[in-house]
Amino acid sequence: MAALVAERAVAVDAVLRACQVCQSVFKHLVSGETVVKADKSPVTVADLSAQAVVNSILGRAFPKDPIVGEEDSADLQGDQGKLLRNKVLALTNQVLAEPLSESQLLAAIDRGNYVGGSKGRHWTLDPIDGTQGFIRGDQFAVCLALIEDGQVVLGVMGCPNLLVDLEDTKGSRGSLFIAIKGHGAFQRSFDATNEQPIHVSQLTDPTMASFCESVMSSHSSHSDAERIGQLLHITKPPLRMDSQCKYGCIARGDSDIYLRLPVRADYVEKIWDHATGSLLVHEAGGQVTDIDGKPLDFSIGRYLSANRGIVAANSSIHSRVLQAVQQALSK
Ligand SMILES: Nc1ncnc2c1ncn2[C@@H]1O[C@H](COP(=O)(O)O)[C@@H](OP(=O)(O)O)[C@H]1O
Ligand SMILES: [Mg+2]
Ligand SMILES: [Mg+2]
Ligand SMILES: [Mg+2]
């Protein structure tokens, strides 16, 4: 497969500019007193601006490509949406080379309304993944992926608050991840251009592993994870963080196992919550399945309706982890 040179460069530029918007919103609207009073509107502003930025950059570079994006322009329409619309427009235009008009802004956001599916190519965007983490000033990620005939072929993820080296706690934050199907996974710091290839951990003994899981126990069951940990004789404490940063941490070997264990039987995962991250782990040498051991199926539409939960780990331990997951969940 061609190495998607143009798509890669455009996606990296779009994700980095969207990260800039998020950071600027956090600095001016969310931090300090606004965090306490947060009525969700700062998040909405950042979500919508980030989606407008990425979609308009993609729209200019690849006008024929549809996009499955998480957000839409409903809250920005009409007189009621005017205040929010003005904020989003100003933020979006801060980082775009060619400013958008109001109608172009709404159209850019709504380019994300594509239904997805198995034919041809489309992008999928989570403008802010880990909104809860964003509000807290913890981890969040701008996640963009290209899907061709139902297969994720390119993934770019910007994690503004993630240490480039998790061990170097005084080191720089802002990790950019890139994966191309068949060509590997890479990381670079936001403030440098040199990329390093990344690999999952080499661990073969699951007892030495650590879990990476959601902060939100409503998104992934912490108690089920604990039972699975006991079955595998894992003693290390779990690494908890919001967003697809978890996939990044597995892909670069900071942690060994990402579990997403369904809390509610009726929750169906969305493609933008997993497309980028799952390709990263796969290209870094790991395996990603659902809790039934099935590969994630991105060909159905906006949802991963054929899958339940997520199990990601390096290839040496994935099957043993899956076994423990199934044993624990069958009880
Ligand atoms: N009950 C639930 N179970 C699983 N995932 C859920 C959920 N409710 C919301 N989510 C998704 O979990 C994502 C965040 O995952 P994590 O907990 O790993 O940070 C959210 O993405 P957004 O923040 O983009 O809305 C949202 O799509
Ligand atoms: Mg998300
Ligand atoms: Mg989101
Ligand atoms: Mg959301």
From TrEMBL:
CDD domains: PAP_phosphatase (cd01517). One of its GO terms (molecular function) is 3'(2'),5'-bisphosphate nucleotidase activity. Its EC number is 3.1.3.7. The keyword Hydrolase applies. InterPro entries: DPNP (IPR006239), Inositol_monoP_metal-BS (IPR020583), Inositol_monoP_superfamily (IPR051090), Inositol_monophosphatase-like (IPR000760). It holds the Pfam family Inositol_P. Belongs to the inositol monophosphatase superfamily. This is 3'(2'),5'-bisphosphate nucleotidase. The gene is MET22.
